[in-house]
From TrEMBL:
Protein name listed in UniProt: P1 family peptidase
Superkingdom, taxonomy of origin: Bacteria
Family annotation (CDD domains): DmpA (cd02253)
Record organism: Ollibium composti
Pfam families: Peptidase_S58
InterPro entries reported for this sequence: ArgJ-like_dom_sf (IPR016117), Peptidase_S58_DmpA (IPR005321)
Family membership noted in the UniProt record: Belongs to the peptidase S58 family.
Source lineage: Bacteria, Pseudomonadati, Pseudomonadota, Alphaproteobacteria, Hyphomicrobiales
Length: 358
């Protein structure tokens, strides 16, 4: 049985979580998965939908922050330039970015036949991590049908975490990684708002992980270099400008660093943030568009929420992942199992339990 950080008493910050402690606590946001496990293939696709409508017609304000750019994402150049997202966000393995991008383009054209004819083309957004150590990435197993299945599976409410969808073959700090999510509830303007985070965790040197209580778990697997990646998707219903969203996205790096990561040369650490509060109508006719914007003097609350939720989402990605045997018999232990063993040993009074490793 898997568990989340709160089940082990691991606390990330002081802000309260939302009802689901998930990115879907932001109203309208949906998440879906398609998992592919066939022989040596352990991969998949995860879809994040900012809302359930036509995203090309009703775009959302967005920004991105590249913490370390060893990655092969699609669509971020236009997101940075124009400040909007106009398709669902798909996450997958490194060599399947093109396939997922094509699936998003086909789906957008199906819903909007004027794309590339009488209106602009569409900017599909795809994030990736390399699941090659646990999956036969050369098989190019992800298909457009898998991408569409993840989109069709997208729903509000509870989010499945761990070794699912794009997270199926991922590793984090030497333990099994994958999909993780968390949220924080905020009081602003006399109302309730949320910041939600979903991560695809595939980063961190084995032995470098630092838990919120100071313990440093040892997965008994060592590596010399940091060659992984993480994609962080942040969502909020707080009205913000692109400039502010970019600043919030940057704070995901604080949550990653708290866990012991240093963003190594071979790591692709990328954050994408969007707000569901300030939409952009593709067919807008007005010369000027009114927009409500967060007071910069209140933005620290969102900075804290982004860091805390990112830290917890990464922990949840490991705690919800079961022990895993992948390509060629490669094994990854479960962080949840390590914590249970520590608790059991402490109850027996075993020496050295819970010590901080050098």
């Amino acid at each position: 049985m898997m568990a989340t950080a709160s089940d082990f008493g691991l606390t990330c910050g002081t802000l309260p979580a939302g009802e689901w402690n998930a990115i879907t606590d932001v109203p309208g946001v949906r998440v879906g998965h398609c998992t592919v496990r066939e022989g040596e293939v352990n991969t998949g696709v995860t879809a994040i939908l900012p809302h359930g409508g036509n995203l090309f017609r009703s775009k959302v304000m967005a920004a991105c922050d590249v913490i370390n750019g060893f990655g092969k994402t699609a669509g971020l150049v236009q997101v940075k330039e124009l400040g909007t997202i106009e398709t669902p966000i798909l996450l997958t393995n490194t060599l399947s970015v093109g396939t997922c991008q094509t699936a998003l383009v086909r789906e957008a054209i199906r819903l909007n036949p004027d794309i590339g004819r009488t209106t602009s083309t569409v900017n599909a957004v795809v994030g990736e991590c390399n699941d090659g150590p646990l999956s036969d990435i050369q098989a190019l197993a992800v298909t457009e049908a898998h991408a569409l299945a993840a989109l069709a599976d997208a729903h509000e409410g509870a989010v499945e975490q761990g070794s699912v969808g794009a997270g199926t073959g991922m590793t984090c700090f030497g333990f099994k990684g994958g999909i993780g999510t968390a949220s924080r509830k905020l009081s602003l303007g006399g109302g309730e708002h949320h910041v939600g985070v979903l991560v695809l965790s595939n980063f961190g040197r084995a032995g470098d992980l630092v838990l919120p209580d100071g313990r440093r778990p040892d997965p008994r697997q060592r590596q010399d270099a940091e060659r992984g990646s993480i994609i962080v998707v942040l969502a909020t219903d707080v009205s913000m400008q692109q400039r502010q969203l970019s600043r919030v996205a940057r704070r995901a790096g604080a949550g990653i660093a708290r866990l012991g990561a240093f963003w190594g040369n071979g790591s692709g650490d990328i954050a994408i943030a969007f707000s569901t509060a300030n939409g952009s109508d593709h067919d807008e006719k007005r010369d000027f568009i009114p927009m409500m914007t967060l007071n910069d003097a209140r933005i620290d609350l969102l900075f804290r929420a982004a860091a805390d939720a990112t830290q917890e989402a990464v922990l949840n990605s490991m705690l919800e992942a079961e022990p895993f045997v992948g390509r060629g018999g490669a094994r990854r232990a479960s962080l949840a199992d390590w914590l249970r063993e520590q608790k059991s040993a402490a109850e027996r009074g075993a020496p050295g339990v819970g010590r901080r490793l050098p």
